[in-house]
Amino acid sequence: MEIRPMRMKDLVRVRDLEIACIREYFSEILENKWEELPKEWKESLGASNRSAFPSYLEGGLSFVAEEEGEVFGFIFAKMLHHVYNAENLIWVENMGVHTYYRRMGIGYKLLREVVNKGAEMGGTVVHSAIQPDNVPSIMLHKKLGFFIDRRSVALFDVTDMNKKKKKA
Ligand SMILES: CC(C)(COP(=O)(O)OP(=O)(O)OC[C@H]1O[C@@H](n2cnc3c(N)ncnc32)[C@H](O)[C@@H]1OP(=O)(O)O)[C@@H](O)C(=O)NCCC(=O)NCCS
Asked: Distance from the CA of 165 to the center of ligand 1, in angstroms?
């Protein structure tokens, strides 16, 4: 299994993998409603969505796991500047491994690659988006030495505010 930088040609395969992971994670909420959900909303999901994908290729911090020409795992990351009191912060947006290839060390290698390459590029800290109930993801990050506490981010949906303004 080779870990290599993600390229534009990986888009379709990585898109399929990421959507499969999102559907798996939200399976309880979504039940069998996937087909009924709005197409535009589904297209906007994930870091592999058409408008986000190129920005994750540019920085050279997104990778895939490939074997015999087939991609079985992905990680989307990029460098952010002057956030969280860090000049160069490595942000990990999402990662996933095909169900058949899980627990074989692929996720670990993908995340390790981001940490190592990010450090080479001058990154001083890595922040990774994890859901508090995602045990495999939490355990993976802990195995690599990530520190996980109760910190979370307060969210404000600006598009929702714009919608409310229009209604008022
Ligand atoms: C999270 C995910 C990427 C892990 O990928 P993976 O290739 O299976 O992980 P690895 O084989 O490299 O596992 C490394 C370590 O993580 C932990 N881990 C991984 N899966 C685990 C599980 N199901 N339960 C408990 N610990 C787990 C273990 O510590 C493991 O080390 P070990 O096998 O020596 O015990 C994978 O489960 C996945 O794609 N899940 C769906 C998408 C998702 O949740 N992405 C995370 C978003 S941040």
From this structure: 43
Model confidence pLDDT, tens digit, residues 32-85: 788 888 899 889 999 999 999 999 999 999 999 999 999 999 999 999 999 999
Domain with residue 28: its CATH number is 3.40.630.30
Number of folded domains that form the chain: 1
CA separation for the pair 30, 60 (Å, rounded): 33
Where is 123: in which H helix or E strand?
none
Domain residue limits at 40: 2-167
Pocket of ligand 1, candidates 67, 137, 138, 144: which has the most ligand atoms within 8 Å of its Cβ, to mutate?
Answer: 137
Q: What 8-state DSSP symbol labels residue 113?
A: H
11-32 confidence digits (pLDDT tens): 999 999 999 999 988 777 777 7
Beta strand 86-97 with 70-83 is antiparallel
Q: Is 154 in the pocket of ligand 1 (CB under 6 A)?
A: no
- DSSP codes, 5-74: E--GGGHHHHHHHHHHHHHHHTHHHHTT-GGGS-HHHHHH-STTSTTTHHHHHHTS--EEEEETTEEEEE
Global model pTM greater than 0.85: yes
